[in-house]
Amino acid sequence: MSILEVKNLTKTFGGLTANNDVSMAVEKNSITAVIGPNGAGKTTFFNMITGVYQPTSGSILLENEILVGLKPHEVCKKGIARTFQNIRLFNEMAVLENVMVGMHTHLRAGLFGILFNLPGIRKEEKVSEIKAYQLLEYVGLADLLNEKACNLSYGAQRRLEIARALAAGPKVLLLDEPAAGMNPKETKELTQLIKKMRDEFNLTVILIEHDMKLVMEISEHIVVLDHGEKIAEGKPEDIRKNPKVIEAYLGSGAVHAG
Question: Which of 7, 44, 143, 159 is the most exposed place for a label (fewest CB within 10 A)?
Answer without folding.
Answer: 143
